[in-house]
């Protein structure tokens, strides 16, 4: 099966309205910004996203938020996105917050075909007991709250049942990929990318460098090509530093 697409636009062309998307990245590190921009141009709306965070104003998933293309999102970090905050508090956006490690395991479980698992994270809090506001009414009252989750005691300790996550599509970014979809991520850009790729029924990867099969040492593969259905070479474009910090010069 040919996995290489000529452009990001071609790769996202069939993502429909209402689709669920697992999107890799952490902050602005390793986000598939070129695919996100192509999806914005494509016009799909009413999207349900799963990602560690929702980008920042005007970058990453933030561009889809700015155009009100996202209906619901699951993540572990709100960040510094003012439009995200505005939409959530005004009742325009449904938000499910999830402990970061739990989110990672939910994505991995979904990619492995595991429907649910028990974890101690969140036990004794509103994560387990329910009541977290998922959606507000315009007047500030809670329209939808998180439900109470099943718990069970193992060896004297209580655990919370969490469900695996599987999405219609996944969009990720890698440093190197071959034509069969094997991917290598550069250091911290690996973050949620392999997990999101596993959770997508159709996974699209944008890569900085595209090589032929056999050019990647099997021992260096971070994500096997079995999890990737589409791949697009984008070069080094689409990178941005979230917050530049420099030392003061001596004297």
Question: How would you characterize this protein structure?
Answer:
The structure is a single chain. This protein is of the alpha/beta class and 251 residues long. It has one domain: Glutaconate Coenzyme A-transferase (3-Layer(aba) Sandwich). Helices cover 21% and strands 28% of the residues. It is globular, with a radius of gyration of 19 Å.
How much strand content do the residues show? Answer: 25-35%
Number of strands: 13
How does CATH name the architecture?
Answer: 3-Layer(aba) Sandwich
Contiguous runs where pLDDT drops below 50 for at least 5 residues? none
Largest sheet: 8 strands, mixed
H/E element order: HEHEHEHEHEHEEEEEEHEE
Tertiary shape? globular
Number of domains: 1
- Highest CATH level, the class: Alpha Beta
**What value does the average pLDDT take?**
95
Architecture blueprint of SSEs:
Elements (H helix, E strand, L loop, with lengths): L7 H5 L7 E4 L9 H10 L4 E4 L11 H5 L3 E6 L6 H8 L4 E4 L2 H13 L3 E4 L6 H4 L3 E4 L5 E4 L5 E4 L2 E7 L3 E12 L4 E2 L8 H7 E12 L18 E4 L18
Parallel strand pairs: 1-2, 1-10, 2-3, 3-4, 10-12, 12-13
Antiparallel strand pairs: 5-9, 6-7, 8-9, 10-11
Helix pairs in contact: 5-7
């Amino acid at each position: 099966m040919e996995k290489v697409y000529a452009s990001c636009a071609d790769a996202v062309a069939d993502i429909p309205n209402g689709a669920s998307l697992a999107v890799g990245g952490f902050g602005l590190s390793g986000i598939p910004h070129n695919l996100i921009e192509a999806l914005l141009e494509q016009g799909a709306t009413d999207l349900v996203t799963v990602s560690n965070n929702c980008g920042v104003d005007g970058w990453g998933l933030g561009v889809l938020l700015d155009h009100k293309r996202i209906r619901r999102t699951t993540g572990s970090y709100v960040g510094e996105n003012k439009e995200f905050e505005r939409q959530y508090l005004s009742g325009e956006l449904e938000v499910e917050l999830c402990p970061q490690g739990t989110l990672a395991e939910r994505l991995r479980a979904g990619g492995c075909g595991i429907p649910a698992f028990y974890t101690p994270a969140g036990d004794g809090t509103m994560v387990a007991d329910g009541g977290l506001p998922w959606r507000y009414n315009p007047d500030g009252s809670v329209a939808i709250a998180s439900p109470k989750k099943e718990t069970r005691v193992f060896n004297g300790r209580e655990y919370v049942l969490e469900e695996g996550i599987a999405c219609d599509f996944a969009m990720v970014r890698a440093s190197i990929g071959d034509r069969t979809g094997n991917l290598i991520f550069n250091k911290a850009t690996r973050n949620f990318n392999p997990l999101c790729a596993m959770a997508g029924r159709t996974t699209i990867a944008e890569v900085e460098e595209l090589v032929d099969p056999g050019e990647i040492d099997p021992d260096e593969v971070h994500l096997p090509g079995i999890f990737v259905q589409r791949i697009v070479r984008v070069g080094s474009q689409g990178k941005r530093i979230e917050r530049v910090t420099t030392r003061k010069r001596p004297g």
